Amino acid sequence: MSRIGDKPKIMSLSDVILKKLGRHSKLDAQSKAAIRRLTCQVHELSPGEDFVRHGERPRSAAVVLEGVVARYGALQKGRRQYLSVHFPGEWPDARSLFLKRMDHSVCAMGNATLCAIPHDELLKIFRAHPRVAFAVWRETLIDAAISREAITNVSARDGVTRLAHFFSEIFHRLAAMSLVENGVCDFPFSQSQLGELLGMSLASTNRHLTALRASGALEFLHGRITIRDQAFLAKQGEFDPLYMQDGIQSGH
Amino acid sequence: MSRIGDKPKIMSLSDVILKKLGRHSKLDAQSKAAIRRLTCQVHELSPGEDFVRHGERPRSAAVVLEGVVARYGALQKGRRQYLSVHFPGEWPDARSLFLKRMDHSVCAMGNATLCAIPHDELLKIFRAHPRVAFAVWRETLIDAAISREAITNVSARDGVTRLAHFFSEIFHRLAAMSLVENGVCDFPFSQSQLGELLGMSLASTNRHLTALRASGALEFLHGRITIRDQAFLAKQGEFDPLYMQDGIQSGH
DNA sequence: CGGACCATTGACCATAGTCAACCGCCGTGG
DNA sequence: CCACGGCGGTTGACTATGGTCAATGGTCCG
Question: Which nucleotide has the shortest C1'-to-CA distance from A158?
């Protein structure tokens, strides 16, 4: 599976975590050192493979190292509702840190690598270094804000707007982690899965996608997004990145 | 404005917080004592009054003491998208603890009382008593789970199912805080606002509500819900309370 | 008494869902 | 090597759910 640029960019767990947390939180040397001492178990997942399932009680929490994973829940007739997508540095099952049972599943979309960090170890760090706890907490609050925005997206915006908003968000998030090159980024979803993520049928997804492509703003084919006109997309999607709250937030 | 039973149930801030946190977190005596020492500023809101607005940078975080408040965002043409509702003991603007600017507004639905606790004070407690931090964090994770469930609700369930699911959740949450009496609880929303919360028009809301009422499972009129058949509602709404994760979670 | 708000209902319309057919690509197996 | 099947993408025809608009009645309040 080739990735954009095919660079074997081997970031370590702590590099990824520090890069992501560093987007919004200021960490002192001690906190960084503590994060560097984290141990974890690496999981390589194939496309579609589940990482954790609804109802399970994980004893560790994972950070995405590479690739894309998604949360999902089951609907009637084998259908799925994808709830969110997660890129390197994110914590798709942070919930498990404080809530015993998973209320959703997490699976890899393309190939993906995750690092599972034992809860014990994280809690120990949180106690010893509140700054780290606050940074990860902040991360989970941004995740929550993204979910809230999704509510508005699926319930109040029509098909084209919904897609435009979604792609704007994805582009924004990937760019923040330097995962966009010349407007191109990996996003290993089929149109059918995209529909299950945005609450529309395959047919509508395809038609609205065709319309967007016709506007020249973006392309999406075979798990790869090409953004040609970010401003147009943002406008079309009524996209305002405030909810993702980029930039350092405060001293704590 | 009379409330169910008209009892002047004056719970103090710490009583409300401890009752709510106690649903899922075990707090030691020191943590409880620290919470009891919290100071706050009480805000009495009238129906529809905003507590905090999109874009603002609060210096305190609020806990609902009494009544119902809701998060909302603005849509085109003065319409709103209500994002979530909050009952006593909940933290509608917990986001502000770690993210500077609000990405949504919070308003009172009926009359409501909130307690604003300065961020400084909370952070100090979090540092000194990690258990308190973890309990509030847990609270915000449950809040996030409720938002995720809302995604499924508005994007995958038809009108009647959506309403049934929503009322099941509300009933469950209010019952947990002893705010239901004989199946009756206050829920100061008009049908129009309920529509803006569940992503449907006033007309649909009314029609589906009429259908539900015809089934005898519930009534909803003038801001008051009466649940007559909880089991039926849960079934009709495909409701599984797992996501709210009731009960003590663990020692930390 | 008039106005505002809420609830209700009917008529009409539009967006999006369902179903089905077709194409191209790719990997497998005869 | 080619035939086949599966999957992803594309498109058309039909349908249905729910949105829009409009009118009505009730209640509360100034």
Answer: C15
